């Protein structure tokens, strides 16, 4: 297993390089880069990124617009040097990769901070939302899915399916708005805060009060994200257990007089949980960075999802590539952890033998 882990760690290097290279090439053809945006602001025009330059390379757009607007070439050269665009694309990519090896992500174009500082500053919000959402989602969905599989077709299965359908039908952000209206001073109750991860006077509180304040702020956003994510995992668990329950080895175990609890958790559980574990890395990355974006906006939580979105809109390329690198690295590490969990759940799985 250790040799397999070593190989997977080594494979992360070309994977990270490939992801960065593809996105770097795509960015080269995206119109409205930081040089053009600053030039547009100097000229007093609208945001350059909104101009209609579909299918036109950024360099072509820049050269045409500069000539039309009559900007001083020396000023343009200074802007390009300031943003690092005075070098060829391949040199900029190699320089970026060399810096990333040292985990030096550079400085933001528009914020007076390094990318590393921004990521460290925003990471606690995203980690809080992601970890607590996944924890409660799995604690609810797996027992509920198992119970629905065991009591398939019963009254419990029918009414719980209605709850699952509601979870499917209502997006997390819409449920978040409903929670705000009802519980955060919108129209009815004023039980929970509307913004931030902690209160403004958090540093003045005692440690027990700090913990309570932290969870007080997390109740509504985490609840909104759990409602939006538990339905799919519940049905996945139910269908996985139903498939295993109807197999011959389960019937054989029952015929031998094995108790139902022993059959379910001693035989079925290991096999049925494999497909659930397989989806854990993707679920974590999705909740941590994608699913939390609208929740962060609604509850004014300044996390990595919002940071990445704003950096793309503003063409803040150091932040774009820095967050992309971190997202990809976390995803690769979680995939490796998923394989390790496979072995822990079912020791019969041997990745070393498969490599041979």
How is this fold's topology laid out?
Elements lengths: L1 H27 L5 H10 L14 H12 L3 H11 L5 H13 L13 H36 L4 H15 L2 H12 L23 H39 L2 H8 L4 H19 L1 H19 L5 H10 L3 H29 L5 H5 L1
Helix pairs in contact: 1-14, 2-3, 2-4, 6-9, 6-12, 6-14, 7-9, 8-9, 8-12, 9-11, 11-14, 12-13, 12-14, 13-14
Rg from alpha-carbon coordinates: 25 Å
What is the approximate shape? Answer: globular
User: Mean pLDDT, as a whole number?
Assistant: 77
Instruction: Tell me the distance between the termini.
Output: 12 Å
Structural class of the secondary elements? mainly alpha
Largest sheet: none
Number of strands: 0
Low-confidence stretches: 45-69
**Quaternary organization:** single chain
Percent of residues in beta strands: under 5%
Topology pattern, helix = H, strand = E: HHHHHHHHHHHHHHH
Discrete helix count = 15
Fraction of residues in helix: over 70%
How would you portray this structure in words?
With 356 residues, the chain is mainly α.
Give keywords.
356 residues, 0% strand, globular
Short note summarizing the structure:
Helices cover 74% and strands 0% of the residues.
